[in-house]
Amino acid sequence: MALIVNASKILEPFTDVYVIKDSRFEMLPGVREYTEAIPGRHGEIDFGMEFGPRAIELRCVVEVIYAQQLAKMREIAGQINPLNGEHELTFADDPGKIYKVKYAGSMAMDSLKRNVTWMEFVLPFKMKDPFIYSDTGKSLVGSGTIANDGTVETPLIVEIKGDVTNPGVDIGSTTLTYIGTVTTSDTLIIDTGKKIVTFNGVNALANYGGGFPKLSPGNTTVVATDAGITTFKWVDRWL
């Protein structure tokens, strides 16, 4: 389900829930560092790091008489039920960006304020994927330049249709190769985000080489196969 904080600060699909504050202005999500201390050696060995999940909270207020507040809370709970999966949260003041969120934690009682005609509360969400995505995918057919207008590297999908034998595709300085024949009725898909390769929907990793590169922010030159039709698909994303 889509959740939208519109230009009037109403949290759609509700018509009476106003967002008075949110926590989007966290500069970066938390990180997980992998280090090891070695006895007899100063400092520690750095084995890299990864971004952890990102928390985002919406402080909301709704005008509702006291007798109907429990019913309103149940209505809100039914809409944001985490058993229904992730929601795509968007903000009118940040157009084109999607926050993939899921209700997490609890609406703690100390965050709930109630009066005879209104109720204020905090909706806690978690972004298991800490990146913010464009709401519009991009694509390029054939060779050319790919523009990742986000601020962080993003995966891409390469789709190859025949006729072509042993196709090779260049993404920047990386060459992706496939051993085999792709006819006009076949589809070869390389997904560098999920790290899978399929031929007509069947696992084809055994015939693939080249790794799973991602697009850095900015422009990347791509070179399609000499024959057949090659389509590059990607979505910009931000920290």
Helices, strands, pairings?
Layout: E1 2-5, E2 11-12, E3 17-22, E4 31-36, E5 45-51, E6 54-63, H1 69-80, E7 87-91, E8 97-103, E9 113-114, E10 118-127, E11 132-134, E12 138-141, E13 144-148, E14 156-161, E15 164-165, E16 168-171, E17 174-178, E18 181-182, E19 187-191, E20 196-199, E21 202-203, E22 208-209, E23 218-223, E24 229-234, E25 237-238
Parallel strand pairs: 1-7
Antiparallel strand pairs: 1-2, 3-6, 4-5, 6-10, 7-8, 8-10, 8-11, 9-10, 11-25, 12-24, 13-23, 14-19, 14-24, 15-18, 16-17, 16-23, 17-22, 19-20, 20-21
Features:
Jelly Rolls; ten-stranded mixed sheet; 239 residues; mainly beta
Fold and architecture overview:
The protein is mainly β and 239 residues long. It folds into two domains: 2-133, Elongation Factor Tu (Ef-tu), domain 3 (Beta Barrel), CATH 2.40.30; 136-238, Jelly Rolls (Sandwich), CATH 2.60.120. 5% of the residues lie in helices and 49% in strands. The protein is built from one helix and 25 strands. Strands 1, 2, 3, 6, 7, 8, 9, 10, 11 and 25 form a ten-stranded mixed β-sheet that branches. It has a six-stranded antiparallel β-sheet with strand order 12-24-14-19-20-21, with no helix packed on it. The longest helix has 12 residues, at 69-80. It is globular. The protein starts with a strand and ends with a strand. The model has no long low-confidence stretch (mean pLDDT 91).
